[in-house]
Specification:
CATH architecture: Roll
CATH topology: 2,3-Dihydroxybiphenyl 1,2-Dioxygenase, domain 1
Length: 122
Amino acid sequence: MVRRFDHLTIVVLDLARARRFFGLLGFKEDLSVVIAGEPFASYIGVPGIEADHVTLVLEGATPRTEIQLLYYRHPRTLADPRTGDLHRIGFNHVCFAVDDIEAEIEKMRRGGFETRSGVAPV
């Protein structure tokens, strides 16, 4: 039986920008390590892996909420030109509950990030 959501790992092309993005949302860096060789290569299925693995934790969240960032040094990350196509198979979006959506959007814009679309009524 599943007890709770534990973490989500996102492969990124720009580690500094991803850290900044999630930092604006209230995530704090908990751990930053380089993973390489075995057992990671077998576990992840990427021969010769060398990657920065950064664990971010949403401050004050209960239960603990983690986003893990993975930046490949080797092999280089394969950019997907269709990443923004929301009708493709795979990851579609992530959603966070906030107290004031307009204030959060403005904070993200001031931090250099734009929203893809407007606020959707829920």
